Amino acid sequence: MGAAAPFRSVAPRMGFVPGFDGIRGIGILLVLFNHAWSPLSPSVAGIIDVFFVMSAFLITTLLLQEHRDQNDISMRNFYARRAVRLLPSAYLCIVAWFVVSILFDRERLPTLVREAGAAVVYLYEIFFPVGLGALDPQLVEKLSIDQFWSLAVEEQFYLLIAVTVLVCIRKRWMVQLAIVLALIATWISWQRWNGVPGPVPIPDDPASANPVVRGLSLLWLSRPDSLMWGVGLAVVNAKLPEPLPAAWRRWLPWVGGVGLIVSFASMFLSSGLLSDLFSKVGLPYPYVPMAPRTPVESDGQIYWINFGHTLAAVSCIPALLCMVRYKDWVANRLLGWKPVRFMGRMSYTLYVWHTLVFFVVLEVLGGDAVLGEKWRIPILAAITIVACLPVYYGVEQRMLRVKLRFASEKEVLDLNTGKMISVEEATGAGGPKEQGA
What we know:
By secondary structure, the protein is mainly alpha-helical. The chain has helices at residues 18-36, 46-70, 75-104, 109-120, 124-127, 137-140, 148-171, 174-193, 211-217, 224-239, 246-266, 272-281, 304-325, 330-335, 338-364, 373-403, 423-426; strands at 411-413, 420-422. The chain has a two-stranded antiparallel ribbon.
């Protein structure tokens, strides 16, 4: 008997999904607003969970699509695309941080050197984990590029997912992979619910403990489970034929709409407005703070960090599926508004560079003493967007055209028209870019 046929996706070609760019656009604005004034709503951190789910879904779906079309997955092209897409802007930002620090704040350099070392090898969340402020607040005050934690988590995912998907396609293990990852993600969520922030205990003396041990003790706060949910969603989408069954067509738009609302609403549960509302309606906890004083203390309260990351990630799943399968869905049309989509296209540049722009404006130029709470958010956001335009057009757009040289297909998606065009046409000066994570 011959070898069993590999797993084959029956989903339609994904094509252009305007809502994805819209989510990125709104999400990066939320990040800018919250980092400009952190008391706004610390639980806006949930947008990273949505980004993780969407990124893993996109990458896995594109890999499944490539194998269906090419009967293989080119590891060389996949890793080349990821490197060209992600590394230039990130590494240039690190260099810019060194220049600014040497010129204006040399006391940052020792910590910046350690941060840069962790960032360039994409192990930042291990050496400078999320939640470190509860264990070593003095170190956190000296950090410059702490946004690189999420880039590290995603890059580790990219390094593993292509090989894993190829093996599971050939062995027909994709469904099993989705089930295993869903179980692991559920367990990680349960760990956070019970106040356990990582797979190893928190050291007795975190400030002087081994950095790797300390990072592992907070690993679940980096939300690898959200990436796992994205892989599971991609497998579900791959198993659903086109058109969808009648029952799915009836309920998916409604469930997707509710999920989208719940996901974004969960990001404001730590805001003062909603805290007061919870108290007035007599919910079992008077407010929903972002986190306890340390990641494992609970003192009888339900904290946002116990459930918020999971809620933001899981509730967005039906919405993302609906965006892919119903291109004319109302949420796709609303999130596809061109200004929001443009912010989504810039989201990677803005995310990587915004802390440097904030530092220059607030610390170097003395803006922190001038900007009040009322105006600092829109002013800092506007300055950051304008300051990042040269990097977006001069670096990222150029690299996206280089990335297309490693395309595994002869045609790629024109994001401006939603149509397939040749790679040669796409790589021309000012050419359009392909859909990607």
